[in-house]
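mind reviewing this fold:
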Amino acid sequence: MDINQLNINYMLRTSLKILKEMLSDRKIDTNYLNNITEEEIIRLYEDNQIFDIRVNDNLKVIYYMNNKIKIQDIRKTIDTEKDKGQNIIFIAKEKLTTNNLKSFKEFKEFNIKITFFNLKQLLINIYRHELVPLHIPITDSKEIEELIKKYSLKSKYQLPIILHTDPICKYLDIKSDTIVKIIRPSKTSGEYISYRYCI
């Protein structure tokens, strides 16, 4: 076995571990995914360099380990009938180019939401790093109203912004038009809370 194969095996195993943690941090049931072992993901890769894992009725993960991304291969993996209205996490071995991303536009009309990760982005859990504060999306309208009143804001748009492309927003799948509560440890008060508006 050559060094490149060892690297791929390591990256697949590690990415599976981080993927499970990421979905757990998103409060997604990972019971089925937890049954996939490190050895099994290597077997899936050895059988076919493009494979998918069903997480639940609404979410599947596609590993695309070919060097070049081809739309005809993607069409074999994403079924517009079966995957209609589904969420897909697409993990590619190579970094996606602008042209690659354009190829995926055809799936939007089937309400298929695809989130893209490069394999290398799933080798370290950025969210569980000690220097990264806790990010909590606020979805309760009453809590948002109280927040606006507390800080004498005219609307949520006056809050400092955070981009939906921010690595933490991507990790937690925080959508645009969401208020994010950020909790940092503080030496003086125990914790410091701030808010951002995701765009």
Observations:
- Residues 3-25 form the longest helix (23 residues).
